[in-house]
């Protein structure tokens, strides 16, 4: 309710991709953004601006980008993060999990060897299928779950063995690894 009130009351609202589309019934003049850097012109105008992004803006989200621009954030209202949603769908606890974001990053996957459970955010280059192949090359055995379009009508969650082919339904996914540690 608090977010809906903010959407209705702010002078200007900017949002990323799917978030923008899903809120058109609340407000039609939401400005759609493709990339984080596209927000820069809106930050300089001094207008009362609400920025909407999916998931938790404090976990590999927009908060660090905005702070890096020297902005003081008045208020952060996080949504349910994609990994929280995925773990709930899998009925699995994520305590002690290894978190990796490959969304726009090239962090290695070697740390997966050291954890029973790893949760990975993907992008169009680092897809679920690519992660499955790379983990197999590293000799990691176990299960891999890939959640695509989480919380949307076309949501899809697949379970495979590490190394098996995974059809990438969307470039943005959450991958969960259950490592069969020795």
Please give the CATH architecture of the largest domain.
2-Layer Sandwich
Please summarize the sheet with the most strands: 5 strands, mixed
The count of β-strands is 8
The structural domain count equals 2
The CATH superfamily of the largest domain is Tetrapyrrole methylase, C-terminal domain
> Mean pLDDT, rounded to whole units?
88
CATH class of the largest domain: Alpha Beta
Shape summary: elongated
Q: Looking across the biggest beta sheet, what order are the strands in?
A: 4-5-8-6-7
Give the C-alpha Rg: 18 Å
CATH topology of the largest domain: Methyltransferase, Cobalt-precorrin-4 Transmethylase, Domain 2
Beta fraction:
15-25%
Structure class:
alpha/beta
The SSE string, one letter per element, is HEHEHEHHEEHEEE
Q: Treating each run of at least 4 consecutive H or I residues as one helix, how many helices?
A: 6
How far is the N terminus from the C terminus? 48 Å
Low-confidence stretches: none
Percent in helix: 10-25%
